[in-house]
Amino acid sequence: MFKDFKTLYEINWLYLLLIIILFWIGEINLFSAAGGSLDPWAKKQLIRFALFFPIFFLIIMVKPRVIFNFSELFLFLIVIGLIITLFFGYTGMGARRWLRLGFINLQISEFAKIFLILYLSKYFHNLDFRGHLEISKSITPMIISLLIFALVAIQPDLGTALIILVLGSSIIFFIGIRLIYPILMFFIIIGISPFLWNFLKPYQQSRIKIFLNPDLDPLGKGYHIIQSKIAIGSGGIRGNGFLGGSQSSLDFIPEKETDFVFSIFSEQFGFIGSIILLLIFLILILIPIISSIKIQNTFIKIALLGLSVKLLLEVFINIGMTIGILPVVGVALPFMSYGGSSLLSNMIICALIINFMSVDKKVKYFR
Amino acid sequence: MNSNFDSNKIIKRRSFLAILITFIFFLFLSFRLFFLQVKNGNKYKKRSKENRISTKITPSSRGDIFDRSGLLVAGTISSYSFVIYKYLNKDYKSELQKFSNTITPLELELFEDNLIKSNAYSHFFLLKDISWEQIVNFEKKKYLFSSIKILETKKRYYPNKNLSQIIGYMADSKDSIRRFPEGAFHIEKSYDLHLKGSSGKTFNEVNAYGKIVRQVSLELPLKGSDLHLTINSELQNFCQNIIPKDKKGSIVVLKVDDGSILSLNSNPTFNAQDFEDRNSIEINNFLNNSEKPMFNRAFSGFYPPGSVFKPLPALLGLEKGIIDSNSEIFCNGHSSIGSRNYYCWKKGGHGKVNLKKAIKESCDVFFYELAKKINIDDLSHLATEMGYNQKYSIGLSNSNKGLIPNKKWKRDTYDQSWYPGETLITCIGQGANQVSPLQLAVHYSSIINGGIYPKPKIIKDSPTLMLGRKIDINYQKILLNALNAVVNEPRGTANKLVRNNPSYIKIGGKTGTSQVIRIQESDREDDLYKEIQKNQLEKFKDHSVFVGYGPIENPKYIASVIIENGGSGSSLAAPLAHEVLNFVNELNV
Q1: A241 contacts in B (CB within 8 Å)?
Q2: DSSP type of residue B481
């Protein structure tokens, strides 16, 4: 079930190092978000990281074949978990998103992203087709993606649900469906979006309206966006220095430890710091995509692409909303936002990426 | 057409597309950051200095609680504390030292750890509930301190200690999202939603140093709703004081017509204000005291009721046609099943006994003979209809249901079948019976109300709900006639009440003596019983029980009294109940 310990030498150490650096940047940022205190966030997040590390290591050491074999089972368990969450989940901020498992609350939808990617990768691996993918072969994956989308959307957690839908579609795109279909889909969605509008909850509608014009409600719902932009903008080129962010420290930024961590960071470290952080994320996303190109095994190839797209989407949406180019949806910034489920799911993803990147690139099928 | 086209090549092309999209996304973010931070950085810097709105959550003020006559029994008052904002002075530690030396001594080492960990921008409590002298003293030397301030907070105020067992108290929320205190016990807990209101928000414009320049907008907090209790404070105080200080016990006073609880006492008791003041020494004392002052005996204390239980088997006997008002038995001091004897409290026996005499003089043998013809399941069922065996959810914590045993209970609990002898013991109110003082009062209310009785309530304007089922008016008359005789006729077990206080209100009722330990039947026979009782350790003495009602012609109030280890019902509980009924009748609530 596990790889030989010697294979540890062959893993991508640069990738591991980047993750640890990123996590520590996040720690420092949570420390400053609390006004220069380990409590209530930085210490707890560090303890979580330490607790999750054995899981991280274990996933690196598992043979990819084992993950491949259990992919359907994992997704099945996730679907069960999502259904249980709907009925028995822990309600917070108006949505049933968390499942209380003993001493921790898990946001199952975070993990749904990972296992949907693995499941779809396996599905296409087993198809073993040539040329472009027939549209008929993409129906099952689409139904599965829509099912998970629906289970998450009715929690309601539209942000996560849309990410799941985009992940599912992007894998179908990678595997080689003719480009005409995604283009067609795009126009259909644009066409029916006025009708979809009516399905949104009032608070979701108002978030989008206010995103388009934050000054509609400067003290209410537009407040998040305005204050976040002021914080980031006031950071200037060099930033206000460590613990020097007055906007964030004076409690202007709501949810500064979760959705708006980037604002805290950017106010302190300015444009230069932000670009360095963006570069770290960029490398973290590009390494697996590039190394997937040479890999012959379809499962691993697609999984690496899907997992990178997951990171890309979260980084883009989270930072995008703090700088006012996307509406506010609850999406965490990987390794920076405070929260156990997000940290654990991103550690699992990076462990999978490290694991998959170290396989023998020429082997097409599992033995 | 592309059937031989390697699908891996397509994936490869699409991967390059993904790389391209990633770059575009990141460039997009970078350009936007450039626009915000480099191009417009100065504009935002200015905005961040000039225009800053800070949001502060204002807690709502909690609803007040009043007693029956409109007297405040739980309110909210201002409390002032010394707090420190660390961010206002980097060298706050030396400022604290200075404060400790000049204004008031602080035990700095006690909270130093927590202070270091605390958020620099929010207040940290140094000393709560400070006096006016301390405030004046501080105001005079205010110029010495830059980070220490006086903060006004609201706190709960409980003027009457005797209502602590009803109102309960508040505690800090365990939920970290709701930072304000919430009701933690009794009425404060069960009516928390009703009392708490909703918090408001203040939006303040502050300058670069965090000082408030002006208030921009205000969302007012909504005060919680008030609550009016059925309790009469004056009666509550009277009852609390009348229970001997060294005895544990409880008094419940119930209004007959609507089930209002006028008084609900338990001794010993605690002081809710100590919980509000976070007075840890007192709180620990309350929580760990072996006398259990946190425990409200009125509805959480369960006892075998003793003879006050007898009207229930009597009613069952009448309804089943086993006895009528003329049925007589001969009491020679004991009754037997097989070889086993069951004794009357009166050694020589009562002679010829009918139902009225059996209740008036509390003859046990009459009820033993009746019990031989009773099915225990019928008794248990009737008990539930008539107020026992029920948990009254009146909004107080830890209320319970008690027990009137039946065959199923015996099987489930001991895996044994029911013995006929147990019915005998049950019918005189001993054995496995477990009833609370509140249930006793409710049961007597059911008799006085003719079977359909109001559910007890503690909130004044809550609707009166009716429970029970109608009983034959003739049976009711027989029972009340007997209960009146207990107090008002010679040889009644509580007849000395009339003799001791002839000027008091005329009442009816029933005495009871609840056995704490079972005496061997043979011991009782050789008249050692009373001797044993006299020499018993305090904790093995019988509980004294009395349930009474008055005025006798048209009963308006019921008083149920239990004094633990108080001896016989007539000796202690009955005189207390008489005092209480006389007092409440004069109050005319």
Answers
A1: none
A2: H
Tokens encoding B192: 């928390």
- Subunit contact A266:B38, Cβ cutoff 8 A: no
Determine the 3-state secondary structure of B565 from DSSP: coil
Average pLDDT taken over every residue of chain A: 86
Looking at residue B426, its amino acid is: T
Give the 3-state secondary structure of residue B243.
Answer: coil
Distance CA(A298)–CA(A294), nearest Å, equals 11
Which DSSP symbol is given to A133?
A: B
Contact B359, B487 (CB under 8 A): no
A236: left (phi over 0), alpha (psi -120 to 50) or beta: left
Q: Which of B403, B430, B397 is nearest to B300 (CA)?
A: B397
- Residues B176 and B118 sit within 8 Å (Cβ to Cβ): no
pLDDT at residue B37 is higher than 60: yes
Q: pLDDT higher for B321 or A159? A: B321
Kindly report, residue by residue over B68-110, the tens digit of the pLDDT. Answer: 999 999 999 888 999 988 878 878 888 888 898 888 888 888 8
Nearest CB neighbour to A176, from listed B10, B38, B45: B10
Average pLDDT, chain B: 87
Structure tokens at A253: 């930024």
Would you state the structure tokens that stand for residue A69, as one six-digit string?
A: 């074999």
**Contact check, Cβ <8 Å, B54/A252:** yes
For residue B507, the one-letter residue type is: I
Single out the residue of A246, A259, A313, A250 nearest to residue A281, CA to CA: A313
State whether B48 and A230 contact (CB < 8 Å). yes
Cα–Cα distances in Å, from B90 out to A35, B121, B147? Answer: 13, 12, 9
Query: Cα separation of B302 and B313, whole Å?
Result: 20
Measured CA to CA in angstroms, residue A82 lies from A94, A101, A107, A344, B305 at distances of 17, 13, 9, 17, 53
Q: Which range scores top for mean pLDDT: A233-237, A248-252, B114-118, B367-371?
A: B367-371
State the DSSP code for A99. E
Token pair of B466 as six digits: 């009716």
* Contact assignment for B18 to A309 by CB distance below 8 Å: yes
A65-93 pLDDT tens trace: 999 999 999 999 999 999 998 888 766 65
Alpha helices in A128-222 (DSSP H): 139-153, 158-175, 180-197, 202-212
